[in-house]
Write a structure and sequence with these properties.
It is built from ten helices and four strands. By secondary structure, it is an alpha+beta fold.
């Protein structure tokens, strides 16, 4: 008499077995910091996929997100939208005005490596200026913080006369209720991936103010390597990145993060992130 074939284990049983094996392997060995971070990222990805699959089993559809006006990320998104609604002004002509908040700097010039963003709605740098007093309620109490921060950038860019022209830069600024400037800056960095922001990790260094005599051995920032002119940066003996490396990273960046050619595309991106389904 022939034996009945052993039924194949169910997918769920296989999943549980693989999970048990993973737990046993990871708890019986010491993971390096790098391996632990990689494993955490992979596990979170699997959890997200399982969650999405679980939602498909429910005949009643769930929204992909809940709109929460109290979420700082939501507030940051709308503050950023208000910023891009402002008119652009020449960076070379910054008026004195009261208020703290957020700003974006745009490039319109002929520097070859910046051709993808030149004249576009993708800023080359975004930032914030915190109020002079944390709980400041009026622009007067906040102080002339935005114009001061923009003036600092104007001075730094103005030193790079061999590669940049101040006339090729514009800015937008928005005076914001104290406490919300960071949320707006975070969202703008997430959306635009500005190449001069340190978070993008390509051409950081614009915001540096110089090293004292005890730290002059620091490497020259990528921004100063590409745009020489600041006297204190010339005293550094070594570049943090070579010009060739910077060029390669910029090329890869523009391939991975498409530029916003106009406000219509920026608005479309805002709306896409607000949709629940």
């Amino acid at each position: 008499m022939s034996r009945k074939p052993t039924p194949a284990p169910s997918p769920i049983a296989e999943l549980r077995a693989n999970l048990d094996q993973l737990i046993e392997q990871t708890t019986s060995t010491t993971l390096s910091a790098s391996r632990r971070r990689t494993l955490e990222k992979e596990i979170r990805g699997v959890i997200e996929e399982l969650g999405s699959f679980l939602n498909t089993l429910d005949p009643i559809r769930q929204p992909s997100a809940v709109f929460d006006p109290s979420n700082p990320k939501v507030v940051g998104r709308f503050v950023s939208l208000a910023l891009v609604a402002q008119q652009r002004h020449p960076l070379a002509e910054i008026p004195r005005f009261y208020g703290s908040g957020t700003y974006a700097i745009y490039y319109n010039g002929p520097f070859p490596l910046y051709a993808p963003i030149s004249g576009s709605e993708t800023p080359i740098y975004v930032g914030q200026a915190a109020p002079a007093i944390n709980n400041a309620r009026t622009p007067l109490e906040q102080g002339p913080r935005l114009c001061g921060r923009l003036s600092d950038h104007r001075k730094n860019i103005g030193t790079a006369i061999t590669t940049l022209d101040l006339a090729d830069f514009q800015f937008r600024s928005l005076v914001v209720q104290s406490g919300w400037e960071t949320a707006a800056e975070d969202y703008m960095i997430h959306l635009f991936r500005p190449i001069w922001n340190s978070e993008t990790n390509i051409l950081y260094g614009l915001g540096k103010h110089g090293d004292d005599a005890t730290t002059r051995a620091n490497k020259r920032s990528p921004w100063d390597t590409l745009h020489p002119g600041r006297k204190w940066a010339e005293k550094s003996k070594e570049d943090a990145k070579s010009p060739a490396t910077i060029e390669t990273e910029l090329s890869r960046h523009f391939e991975e993060h498409p530029v916003f050619p106009d406000l219509e595309h920026v608005l479309a991106s805002f709306l896409d992130e607000l949709r629940q389904v």
